[in-house]
Amino acid sequence: MPDTANLEIGDDKYSLEIITGTEQEKAIDVSRLRKQSNHVTFDDGYGNTGSCESAITFIDGDKGILRYRGYDIVELAEKSTFLESAYLLLYGVLPSRSDLEAFKQLVGGYCDLPEEVVQVVHAQPKNAHPMAVLSSGLQALGGVYPQFCTNDRKKDLEAFDQSAALIISSVRSIAAALYRHVNGQALPKAHSDRSYCGNFLSMMFAQGDGGEEVPESVQNALDLIFLLHADHEQNCSTSTCRMIASGGANPFASLAGGVSALWGPLHGGANMAVIMMLNEIHESGDDGSRFVESAKQGKSRLMGFGHRVYRNYDPRAKILKSACDQALAALGVSSPILEIARKLEEVALEDSYFIERKLYPNVDFYSGIILQALGFPTDMFTVLFAIGRTPGWLSHWKEIAETGKKIHRPRQIYQGETLRSYLSLENR
Ligand code: CMC
Questions:
Q1: Given Cys at both, which of 19, 64, 259, 419 links 313, Cβ 3.0 to 4.6 Å?
Q2: Catalytic machinery residues
Q3: 361 lines ligand 1 (CB under 6 A)
């Protein structure tokens, strides 16, 4: 295979190095092209642009492969837990028994939210979007721990073990504080001896002193959702985190930006949009077929379908489809919208519109149904995505802080007005 690509612009010839990834992905290195030729490359939406070299997560969208640090997502979903996979993403290796125990202790030790952050949550209007509250809560958390967010890379890296555990622990406590605030309740004391999800679920839903633990099967269903969301390479929110980190900002600032980027309905907001879509279909008496027709005509979008990278299937959706059946059985609930979701999937997967465009269910298609069955309100779904994605964002912050050399600064092709003369107000 050639190790250079040749580019001709008029009479000028340029030889561009080809970079090969460990999974044999190829990229043409254009990092010096502008200097050499006065041209930049143009790639609206970055679909063909490798923005960095990364050792965290590998995706082969055509084959439906997702790996964290080389471990297949199917195997991790079966054998690992959210916190173990979080450790793997952050540090690149699976923890030993004692390392995992120490990590759990560190995360558990931070589960009581500082009073200042609780106040920030309580200061928000009750109808504020949960993603806005999470983002501001993260910034406030950094304010409580100035020693972890100095914006001096060396110092922030030295504090990383602590700040990562603090943030992983606190995102769920902020979510619970917000839920309790909206419902006019105080945040109960956390149970640091419980599992990550067991503690979170009792902070959210327990009555009284929260002495009774949620059944393990329910904790496991949520743990699986978090694990499956933990990283997904250079998506919109992760790229945002990396962009912020590239300027030297601390992990709290970087993740607060990531939360904002995740909010939108084409990204993390899709899990919420799926439930709204399924409810709408249910209420209209449609079995899903009419909605599929309107999506084909471009009048609506089948939320939870399609992905920029996966063009075969999303392995996370497959895992969640069967987890959905198990979770609903364990909870002893039935869901009319699950029937509609299945029907939509069946109709869409046989339809040439979806087949030709390679549109398959993505991670958000079934996760919302499980979250709804667990009792989470729909407008908190994206916050739950954010809790799951937190270890991934932190890993990318760390990778930039350890290896990044340049501030991220894309170019543009300016298509606006050329130089004009200023006209004073009287002459306009
Ligand atoms: N329903 C109907 N048609 C669709 C859909 C959909 N969900 N997604 C894409 N298409 C069509 C689109 O109209 C276009 O058709 P045409 O070629 O005739 O113009 C074609 O498929 C290509 O679409 P695109 O918008 O260029 O594809 P993209 O790679 O830019 O978008 C996507 C990817 C995920 C934003 C898009 O598929 C979408 O909007 N899906 C619904 C929202 C969703 O579920 N998002 C969650 C993604 S997974 C979680 C995450 O990682 O963020």
A1: 64
A2: 307, 364
A3: no
